[in-house]
Amino acid sequence: MGQVHVLDHPLIQHKLTLMRQVETGAKDFRELLSEIATLMCYEVTRDLPMEEIEIETPICKCKSRVITGKKLGIVPILRAGLGMVDGFVNLIPTCKVGHIGLYRDPETHLPVEYYCKLPPDVGEREIIVVDPMLATGGSSSDAISMLKARGCKNIRLVCLVGVPEGITKVQQDHPDVDIFIAAIDEKLNENKYIVPGLGDAGDRIFGTK
Prior knowledge:
Shape: globular
Number of helices: 6
Largest sheet: 9 strands, mixed
Radius of gyration: 18 Å
Helix content: 25-40%
Number of strands: 13
């Protein structure tokens, strides 16, 4: 079973509290989300494989370590996942970025696919899927299934806020995928929004509501 990593660093929790507040506007919301994504990236990539190489400093030659192994890819789930991309790309500038478009049917609350554009070598990369909200888990699970269908074998899911229901859904469908999350909230309401949550992340990022 994939592990659930709750990233409760004080800086992450402080910034998340600011994001939750109803008076936080789109500009601050976007900036805070990107900052949190950067902090989460630090933890998500903690176990990347490394190798020792020889370099020359201004003083002498020495052995030093660099990241080795498979290349990385970041895949946001549209729209809200876009708000987390820069936070990761700032630390991993050589990564490739794919996009998966899913929206939630307002009546069934089930995810509907409308877009998928991935790097041609996506199956050879370690993929980090990013989406701020893990509510029912349907969108995240479907996105991971789409990646697996295209040959991806090493996938991690990074979310800002989730609920036990969404975590359980992903774990049941994809027991090989680790989940990294900043907060596990109480429940979903009748409209499948996270409680207490922070509202619709996409609308708050882009100022569309």
